[in-house]
Design a protein that fits this description.
764 residues, alpha+beta, Beta-galactosidase, Chain A, domain 5, GH92 mannosidase fold, 10-stranded antiparallel sheet, 6-stranded mixed sheet, globular, carbohydrate binding, Glyco_hydro_92, GH92_a_mannosidase_put
Length: 764
């Protein structure tokens, strides 16, 4: 070929190359995935790990009915259910994928006509400010959400910065257009949840205030500042506090009409405007954990103008940068959508919890300034220690370092001197079992991610693990297990404490603390105390050392477990899997156990009254919709048939993750379900965080580039990848065959080439 031909070929290649470069990864993100049934994700606007999650809420069910828990409220952990026919409004704070909830602060709803401050009901939306809508007129993408509200034909558009929610509402012509500001609204709401609310109207386009609630977070205060792009001509308020024995002398004022100094338990506002046809009014709502003044400062720093489209672009650029940390080629577009939506969901929480000036409210309810780190909140650690934080250690280590620093600040501010269990908004809600901040901290230190004082971190871990008055720890230390008569989740607690204690032992070993290493190495063996060899399962034991007599290995409730039964939890010894296998009877016994787990049938009666799991999240008796089993398929690697792990992993990833609105088999749990998908799609998984090993599985990608923060790259290729070729014929790392089916973190962080050769036949 001559030079001219080479030039022509090169020129012909340029357009394709440019198109490839111009391809935006955000096009594959579908925030509506997981918004139906069990996913509990929200579809609204936010930036990566942003403090504001501006999203629609679709109903207002109360947490309680006649003083009893209302089970239907569970559907609204994220405020939105895809199947609902109406939208109540747009609030600024949401959890992603949780199985309990709070938040839903500062709900905004545009309306026209007679002022309505009651939300109405789904079957009678005309009686309130809510509106019917159609999914045909709904659009959700990273940092942008829009919908047409059918009731008054008002178009709603949402975008954000880190700390500011920006609304744009396009109205029909009217002399009675309104923006309702409902400060009583919330997720998992009930009478008395609002402790106090304050609003100060500074001028005809600016309000500031705060809302204090008592919920999952016991003492939570959100400060806000609101600005409108157009002055409101009137405003009004309604107190919904009911009758009080004392009303003070504020009754001298008419506080319902154009009164600027409002305070009550429950306040609703309306801001009134004249609008021309197709006139847009914007609203900015800035949040702060510290003060109204800081909320105003956050707004000025992050959203100084009314360039709505510019905020959309900047937020989407931030998302594009986040998604580019892993660039993949998949078998089809549906897989690309699942992959990048998983990356999106794994970048929503935890959330930044400090103002532009570094100030935040600490666990001690005092104001602190983060020095040298970004402070974060909302740590769902029972879920996220498994794969989410290990994922950050790989692709976002500086962020995980800041998260660990935030956990250490939490510990320093704790009067109980404990690391976080499930913390959010300057509180700990103590949800779930274990003390898994230990796992996150130890893994980050051992991998060189956290640059803080390791000695102080070890002291915090030990202190937390010795909190005798917390969920059976005292009995656990004394007896070597948590007795069934001490805790209703005794087996779960014992198994999870044992793993966390193993983590502490590894850090102590690294730091040369032999006494601590020996103590916690012994505690890490505690799982053995609850293994009943007569039945081959973990089983509750009372304080006298007697196994529970009435015991059902398929049941969860009243059997010593949380979100899992004995079939699943008996495999939860991630730090000592070979020892567990030997106790169970060896390789063949474990393989048979795993085969049965995936193929047996779990009757409906065992989960039909359990709100956190449905048939969607179950394969046989393997429960992927809850986290304790996320490592289980990889355990085939230590049996005589590692190829079975490859087949099961491909089965799980195909069965549990889809492009639909109900595309997640269980709660996404602050990114854990998504992190599992990402690791498994790449072909390896952290079975035991704290160990320098990732276990090889079956990749779903055709190829991938993992772009590391240190500038190096992990290049992954799956040769002969196809829907049928689920088995790994061979795998090499930098040209060397991996005989033990493990990769080390240290080698991965140095970059290199990982090549899988796939086949439709198992490599036996």
């Amino acid at each position: 070929m001559n030079v001219r031909s080479l030039v022509c070929v090169g020129l012909l290649c340029i357009p394709y190359f440019l198109r490839a470069q111009e391809t935006k990864l955000i096009q594959y993100v579908k925030p509506l995935i997981g918004t139906a049934r069990m996913g509990h994700t929200f579809p609204g606007a936010t930036v990566p790990f942003g403090a504001v999650q501006l999203s629609p809420d679709t109903d207002t069910l109360s947490y309680a009915v006649n003083g009893q828990y209302n089970g239907d409220v569970y559907k609204y952990c994220a405020g939105y259910q895809y199947g609902d026919p109406t939208i109540v409004g747009f609030s600024h704070t949401h959890f992603s994928g949780t199985g309990h909830s709070d938040l839903g602060d500062i709900l905004i709803m545009p309306t026209q006509g007679k002022v309505q401050l009651n939300p109405g009901t789904a079957d009678k939306p005309q009686e309130g400010y809510r509106s019917p809508y159609s999914h045909a007129n709904e659009r959700a993408e990273p940092n942008y959400y829009s919908v047409l509200l059918d009731k008054h034909q008002i178009k709603a558009e949402l975008t954000t910065t880190t700390r500011v929610g920006i609304h744009r509402y396009t109205f029909p012509q009217s002399d009675a257009s309104h923006l309702v500001v409902d400060l009583t609204a919330g997720i998992y709401n009930y009478d008395g949840k609002n402790v106090w609310t304050v609003v100060k109207v500074l001028n005809d386009s600016t309000l500031v205030g705060y809302r204090q609630t008592n919920g999952w977070s016991r003492t939570r205060t959100v400060y806000f500042a609101i600005k409108t792009s157009k002055p409101f001509k009137n405003y009004g308020a309604k107190y919904e506090d009911g009758k009080s024995v004392y009303n003070g002398f504020w009754r001298k004022f008419d506080q319902q009409h154009n009164f600027p100094d409002l305070a009550a338990h429950n306040i609703k506002l309306h801001l009134d405007f004249d609008t021309k046809a197709q006139e847009s009014i914007q609203m900015k709502v800035a949040l702060s954990p510290v003060s109204m003044k800081n909320a105003l400062s956050n707004m000025e720093a992050e959203a100084p103008n009314w360039d709505f489209d510019g905020y959309v672009r900047r937020g989407q650029s931030a998302w594009e940068k986040e998604l580019q940390k892993i660039e993949v080629d998949m078998l089809n577009k549906e897989d690309l959508v699942n992959f990048y939506t998983a990356m999106y969901h794994a970048s929503l929480m935890p959330t930044i919890y400090m103002d532009q000036n570094g100030e935040y409210k600490g666990l001690d309810q005092e104001i602190h300034r983060a020095k040298g780190f970004t402070n974060y909140t909302s740590f769902s650690l029972w879920d996220t220690f498994r794969a989410f934080h290990p994922l950050l250690n790989l692709i976002n280590p500086s962020r995980n370092s800041d998260i660990v620093a935030s956990m250490m600040a939490h510990y320093d501010q704790s009067v109980l001197k404990m690391l976080p269990i499930w913390s959010h908004y300057a509180n700990d809600n103590w949800c779930m079992s274990g003390y898994h901040s230990v796992s996150v901290i130890v893994d980050a230190i051992l991998k060189g991610v956290y640059k803080g004082d390791p000695e102080a971190a070890l002291r915090a871990c030990v202190q937390t693990a010795n909190a005798r008055n917390y969920e059976g720890i005292g009995a656990y230390i004394d007896k070597g297990y948590v007795p069934d008569d001490v805790s209703g989740t005794s087996v779960s607690n014992t198994l999870e404490y044992a793993y966390d204690d193993w983590c502490i032992a590894q850090l102590a070993k690294k730091l040369g603390k032999e006494d601590i290493y020996q103590t916690f190495s012994k505690r890490a063996e505690s799982w053995r105390a609850l293994y009943d060899p007569t039945i081959g399962f973990m089983r509750p034991k009372n304080s006298q050392g007697k196994f529970k007599e009435q015991f059902d290995v398929l049941d969860t409730h009243g059997q010593g477990f949380i979100e899992g039964n004995s079939w699943n939890y008996s495999l939860y010894v991630p730090h000592q899997p070979k020892e567990m296998m030997e106790l169970m009877g060896g390789k063949k016994k474990l393989e048979t156990y795993l085969d049965s787990l995936f193929t047996m049938e779990l009757p409906d009666k065992y989960f039909e009254h359990t709100e956190d799991i449905t048939r969607d999240g179950i394969i046989g008796n393997y429960v992927h919709g809850n986290e304790p089993s996320h490592h289980v398929a990889y355990l085939y690697n230590i049996t005589q048939s590692p190829w079975k792990a490859q087949a099961r992993l491909r089965q799980i990833i195909r069965n549990q993750y889809h492009n639909g609105h109900a595309g997640l088999g269980g709660n996404d749990d602050c990114g854990q379900m998504s992190a599992w998908y990402l690791f498994t799609a790449l072909g390896f998984y952290p079975v035991a965080p704290g160990e320098d090993a990732y276990w090889i599985g079956s990749p779903l990608v055709k190829s991938a580039n993992v772009n590391l923060e240190n500038g190096k790259r992990i290049s992954i290729t799956a040769r002969n990848q196809s829907e049928k070729n689920v088995y790994v014929k061979s795998v090499t790392w930098n040209g060397k065959v991996l005989d033990n089916l493990k990769l080390s973190y240290a080698s991965l962080m140095n970059g290199g080439e990982l090549i899988y050769t796939m086949s439709n036949k198992p490599n036996k």
